[in-house]
Amino acid sequence: MDTPAYDNTVTPARRALDALAENTEDTTALATLASSEVLVPVPDDAGQEEAGDASIVALPVLEQTDGAPVVPVFTSEPEMAELLPYVSRYRLVPLGALAAQWPADDLSLTIDASSAHPLTLTSEGVRTLLARP
């Protein structure tokens, strides 16, 4: 059986990450990523009002091996299950909107951390590369 040239199970955001792995200055891929929705895991300790209120997004913060805080987001449920199989709730959030409100501290963002082409951005990188009006 031939492998299809186009895999429709791969999201546009996932294809954008793959393109950025080859060319970090691919503006089309960055624009696609910024306009895509990502899955933001809802922390188990988030209250019901945070989980249900569309204006509140509780960010799950993990600690990297060097101790730096990072927020993981994902392009699909399988990507999220690969790294966080115990997470049962998530919110679909436009990445550009999330980036536009990103905190100014040293909080990084990682997209599909367990994939072949993950993307991790510093706080400044999130705001400058992904924030869209």
Summarize the structure in words.
α1 (12-22) packs antiparallel against α2 (27-35). The strands form 2 sheets. A 4-stranded mixed sheet has the order 2-3-5-6. The protein is globular. Mean pLDDT is 82; it is low at 1-6. β5 and β6 (119-121) form a beta hairpin. The chain is built from 6 helices and 6 strands; from the N terminus they run ααβαββαβαββα. The chain has helices at 12-22, 27-35, 48-52, 77-83, 95-100, 123-130; strands spanning 37-41, 62-63, 69-73, 90-94, 108-111, 119-121. The N and C termini lie far apart (45 Å).
Q: Unreliable segments (pLDDT under 50, ≥5 consecutive)?
A: 1-6
Mean pLDDT: 82
Rough shape? globular
Radius of gyration from CA coordinates: 15 Å
Oligomer: single chain
> What is the count of β-strands?
6
Order of helices and strands: HHEHEEHEHEEH
At CATH's second level, what is the architecture? Answer: 3-Layer(aba) Sandwich
Q: Tally the structural domains.
A: 1
Name the beta content range: 15-25%
- Helix content percent band: 25-40%
User: Which fold name corresponds to the CATH topology?
Assistant: Trna Endonuclease, Chain: A, domain 1
Give the biggest beta sheet: 4 strands, mixed
Protein name: SseB protein N-terminal domain-containing protein
Domain SseB protein N-terminal: 14-127
Name its key features.
133 residues, alpha+beta, Trna Endonuclease, Chain: A, domain 1, four-stranded mixed sheet, two-stranded antiparallel ribbon, 6 helices, disordered N terminus
